[in-house]
Amino acid sequence: MSHEISLAVWDLPSPVIVGRRAALKAGVSCPYGCSLTGAAIEVRDEQGAILGSGVVGADPWRGTMALYWVEFDVAAPHTEGIHTWRMRAAAPHAGHAALESIVRVVASRPPEHRVTFEVSERGTGIPLADVELRIGAFRATTNDAGRAVVDVPGGTYDVHAWKLGYDLLSSATSVTADATLRLEVAVTPSPEQPYWM
């Protein structure tokens, strides 16, 4: 009786840049803790062309007992938009069934401009760390000084800023050159009437 394996993919940039190569990490594991050293993982595009492949090593991912992993490069799509990649993992020995999975990838044209975010609390001006930012498909998180930097192509974008305990901030901006966006987010008011159980 063969064991089913699971496949994980992480650290793939989002979006990937059209025509460039991108690095990702992929790993396989067996629920019974079997060693999967030597398992092969490959990535194919919608037409079945191989974009990249790797072979997992002997050391499990830190903090896990049996996630065997590899880092390798893949060729990014040649056009902007959402693309589908098919991941396939094959164990190096009998007893483990091969596995296929789908990964959706967003591809963007190359960045042209640098956008610097400065995020503070509305009313106090205190810089806010750990604010999740999104400008179009590009993402960043503010540092302890409330700053984050994102490189994007020129264009008009929806901008979102989110942090637990604060209202979601949404706006739009047009990027035609390097720019600094100063955002103020408001503390979410506590309900006037507490909830009783």
Summary, kept brief:
The protein is mostly beta strands. The protein is built from no helices and 15 strands.
Q: Quickly give the CATH architecture of the largest domain.
A: Sandwich
What would you give as the CATH superfamily of the largest domain?
Answer: C2 domain
> N- to C-terminal separation?
51 Å
* Total DSSP helices: 0
Give the oligomer, counting copies of the same chain as homo and different chains as hetero.
Answer: single chain
Number of strands: 15
Mean pLDDT comes to 93
Task: Estimate nothing, just give the exact number of structural domains.
Answer: 2
DSSP helix fraction: under 10%
- Percent strand: over 45%
CATH level 1 class label of the largest domain = Mainly Beta
Architecture overview:
- The protein has 197 residues and is mainly β.
- The protein folds into two domains: 6-108, Immunoglobulin-like, CATH 2.60.40.150; 113-185, Sandwich (Immunoglobulin-like), CATH 2.60.40.
- The radius of gyration is 21 Å and the shape is globular.
- It has no helices and 15 strands.
- Helix content is 0%, strand content 51%.
- A five-stranded mixed beta sheet has the order 2-8-7-4-5, with no helix packed on it. The protein has a four-stranded antiparallel beta sheet with strand order 11-10-13-14, with no helix packed on it.
- Strand 4 (40-44) and strand 5 form a beta hairpin.
